[in-house]
Amino acid sequence: MLRQVTLEDIRPIGIGAGILGTGGGGNPYLGGLHLASVIRQRGPQPLVDPLDLDDEALVCVAGNIGAPTVSIEKLPEGTEMLRALRLLEAHIGRAFDAIAIAEIGGANSMQPLICGLLAGIPTVDSDSMGRAFPEIQMSSFLFDSAATAAPLAMVDAADNAAVLPVAIHDRWAEKMARNIAVSMGARAGLVGTIMSGAQLKAAGVHYTMSLAHHLGCRVLEAQRQKSDVPQVVADALDGQALFRGKISDVHRRTTAGFARGSVRIDSFVSDDQLTIEFQNELLIARVNGVVAVTTPDLICIVTEEEGEPVTTELLRYGTRVAVIAVPAPPQLKSETALRVVGPGAFGYDVAFHPLPGGVIGWRPKSG
Q: DSSP per residue over 49-94, as a string?
């Protein structure tokens, strides 16, 4: 596994996290530029093995909240994560020992590294999804744990800040935080989900930063070798290359702090069509109207030639893509988890049929 994140690691992490983000999590290129500037100033960011974390350590998660479509136009000021962290520390009267990853997707894989560097504390190689999801309560740290989403702190690119001290349940924390984010221009830094090291060990999806790095390295090597990059991605994630074709239609809108819509892809070799619906992240894929993959399994879109991730805000007519179906980590497939991240949680009246296998959340075999 990775022990620190250097300048050389940013590119592979951005590729891998962009793919694992299932279309969401924010633009990894912009997140990488931000992280690179901080590493140049402060050096590499230490990455902690989650199983080495002290049980009594105080940990929080850090990330952005808002619509990915906004993130490519409304750039961060740069210290939102740090200011939110300090605000929450002041609220609880104690400093944090480490930062966990809210979601490994896209730019949100970079934010806990940036926050840790600015605060002078390490980042834990563990997140709560093994992918990205659009809402705060969709977190393995919250499914079967005493941890709660609130208290949380939010800060925008100006001097606006808010602390949400308590919520009657995590879904209400999401609703209130989302309304605050909308008032902040549909983009804000958020720090919350306070937990102990023991709670993180029990509930986290571990080693996902290392997995993102490994996946990105595989993609870059496949590009150099001129291999079938989408198939390399599928093999690395124990998934399958589900569909290849050209984007023929995109419906996308920003509403209530989310990017919502659908994309249609026409096959290169037949009359088959694949449609995907998304809410920040890609949620349900149908081939010729028949459900093929649903959340929480991952639906990943990459460019057909280079295997580069295509996030929802960058879906464009005419782009040649491959769609890869990837098994979700086991933490997302329990009965409790499916009530929060399964198809029904997004309003789809379809059953979840898990893809077999999976590598997300397992300890790396080497490194």
A: -GGGS-TT-EEEEEEEEE-HHHHTTS---S-HHHHHHHHHHHHHTS
